[in-house]
Structures are given as structure tokens and as C-alpha cells.
User: Fold this.
Amino acid sequence: MQSLWLYLHFPNLQLDSLCDLGALAPTTDDLAKDNDAHQGAKPIVILHAKSNTVIQLNQLALAAGIQKGMGLGTAAALDQHLQVVAYRADVEQKKLTEIAEHLYLVTSDICLFPPDGLLLRIHNMLTLYGGLAAYWRVLKGQLSHFRVSYHYATGQSPYAARMLARTQWDQISDHLPMLQHQIGVRQLSDSELSAKTVSKLNRVGIHTIADLMAISLKDIAKRFDIELVTYLGRLSGEFHHPIAFFHPQSRFQHYLELLYEISYTDSLLPPMKHQLQALEQFLKVRDRLTQKIIFTLHQRDADSLTLEVGSAQDEYQAAKWLQLIELKLAQLKLQAPVFALTLTTGSTQERCPDKADLFSARKGALSYLQLISILQARLGEQAVKQVCLTDDFRPDKVNHYQLPQSQHQPIDFRLQALRPSFLLNTAQPLTEKVTVIHGPERISTGWWDNQAMTRDYFIAQNSQQQWLWIFRTPNKKWFVHGLFS
Assistant:
């Protein structure tokens, strides 16, 4: 099988990561609150700090006359509203990994070429998709989920595909003569060779890859170092090119740097929704769920804030998490503007779908656990408790409160006796005439904790036709303890 590689080159990856926030653009009110403008209103450049030159720029900056390689002083003089963002290789690396994660759904062998490239081994995927054209359509569909510009090309070797993509050939072909021709017409400066090696070759009249390949590897080895021989062998596919293939991460972590700083919590929802959609995709393809997500809010000139959101029911859907986050954000106060967000998850579990009866009646939109999650997000986890039975017959102690879904499970306490719906906090002396309807029921217990009690309980009815739960003590005193509904 003839080797075929595809290279994807992302020349503006950090800038496109910021522009991807175009879908997350704040409303007019949000912009007025934050006194900022998002990326569509200003020219933006990505500045490399060491060289002090522009390496990426958007269309508004290009229209203002700014070019790649231009110094900051010159660029700023061309447009007074220029927005400058420092280049960060880690941002591009995270975006590249995110794209690779998404492409892994449709293709297996992916190699990261940081900070701006992906290499795909595709000859072993063509039979599955029925040819190169069909495979490329599927791959483009996956790339369309990202608002990133890219150049692409196929080649008979990783170096060949990389060279053609970085020179913007933007063609997909498995025709070997065409691929070899396209490689041959490229200049030496388009290759991976060092500037010193290119200068040496130019001095002896070698300017293109075809000129270089016209010389045998033996003759090249006599005049130049082994690095050039190795490169040519890998470029032509004669030498094996060692590749470390990408494996998807087992734990979700998503960092998102905002183009504009946010000072109000309600403006955080659009970027958070963007991250939750990435989380949903991550969990869905792995058929897993989580009960906790953790947002880290990176604040300017202040410590980062941690926002933990829990769900009593294992979840993966972005919409369900967003509903809980809205309630949490309503109680949060920012100490400083937020410039970035990081989303991580707690432990994840395999998804086990609930089994429902085909003929069961229609239920509400919220499950029991979903309702618990909403109440906990709004009121706090400690404020929501459920009533459980204990193996104690004393009316004051038979019930207790515990956190929903805690490890302590309620005891299966099958109490057949009649009990009132409303129990008084403290038993009150019986001061009216009643008619006993049922009883007595003797409760004599509690000797183990020095709170022993002996009472005879009755169900009675008063003159107002109210049903009372009354008891008599051993010294013949009567009390009302509860009322039946």
C-alpha cells in the first residue's frame, strides 16, 4: 500500500481561538457594563514578544496596512485602535489538542506538530470511507466545528505533506507523479533545512527541491553533513520517519482565554456554554457521565476563583449543567475582571441508562435527582435535606434529616401502625373532651440511651371533628402529640 499523509497547517491558531469567541460575543448591555469591545470592532494583532513583531493579524488590521513581520511601533502608528495580544504557545497547543480530539472521532492516526500543525496518516483509512474524496469530506465536516483558517495538502511522506501545506497548495491527491512534481518546484527556503544549509546550496546553484533531488544521496553525503541526507531521504519517503501518534486525554480540561475582560457574572455564561459543549462532546463519545464540574475563573490582579457545581444525578448534557451554573453565578461576586476560564471535571462514571416501564405514566420534565441538583445549586448543598426513618419507635426520633443521596441509606422500616401527618414539636396537655376511636398502642422503649419512655397512644376525635393522636403516661396524664390530615 502506497503511503499517503495529510498535513493541516493552522497559520493563525491563536488569533482564530480568540475570534472563535465571535459566537460568544456579549450583548450590547454586556459591552456597556464591561466598557470593552469584542473582536469584531477592533483590529487585532498577535505580537511575538522576543522579536517584537506581528505574527498574526485579523482582516481589520490587514485593511489598516499592517503586515506580518512588522514591528509594534509601526503597527500601532497605522491604527490608534489596534488591540495587541501577546503570543502564547500554550494557547495554540491547547487549541491544537482540542482539534485533534475532535478529528480522532473520524480518523485514527494523528500526530501533533506544535504549535500550528497536525499530521494524519490516511492511506489506512481510505478503504473505510470509500476513497480519498469521501474521507476528505468527512474530515472537513469535523473541521467545520472550529472557526479556524487552515491550509492542507497530501504527500507521499510527512515532510512532503507538511511542505505543500505550509506553502498553501490546498489540494488533496494520491497521484504520486503530481505530488512529486509539486515538491520539486518548491524553493529550498520552503523546506525544513536550516538557513545556513540553504545558503550553501544556493551558492552552488541549487535553488529548488528538484535541483537537490537530481543529485544522488551518495554525492550529497560527500559534500554535506548527514542531516541533509536524512532530510532528503525522509522527504522522498525512502527513509522511515518516526512518528509519535496522538492519544486522546483521559481527563477533560479546557482552557479558554477571553478576548475581552468580564466584570459581571452574567456575561460569563456565553463562554461557559462554549466550554460545556466541549465537555458534552468529550463525555458523549466516551459514554461517560460526571457528578461535578469545576470552573476556575482567572482574575486580573487577583487570585483565581474556583466555582464547583455538583449534580445529584450523573450528567453530561451542556444544557443541564448551564442551568445549574446560572444559579451558582447569581450568588458569586467577582473581585476583579476575568480574563480566562478553565473547566475540569471530577471523577467520571460509565453511563448506565435508566430502565423505564413502557406503559408507565408520563412524568414531569425533571427527575428527582435533577430537582435536588437545582435546589442545591440555588440554596446550597447543606440547605437541602430529605426525611428518613430510623429503627426507633419513639415518635420524636423515628425521623431524621440527611443530605440527599448520601452514603447512609434509609432503613427499610415497615411501620404498619397509623401515624398522624402533623406531629407537634412538643406534646401539649389535652385540655378538651375527646372520643377515643382507636387504641391503645403501647410504646415502651429507649432504655439504651437514658431517654426511656412508656406511653399508651390513642386516636381520638374532638368536638370539632378533628382527629388527634393522643397518649397517656403511666401517671394518668393525657397529652396531644399530633393531628391527622
In short: The CA atoms of residues 439 and 458 lie 5 Å apart. The longest strand covers residues 288-299.
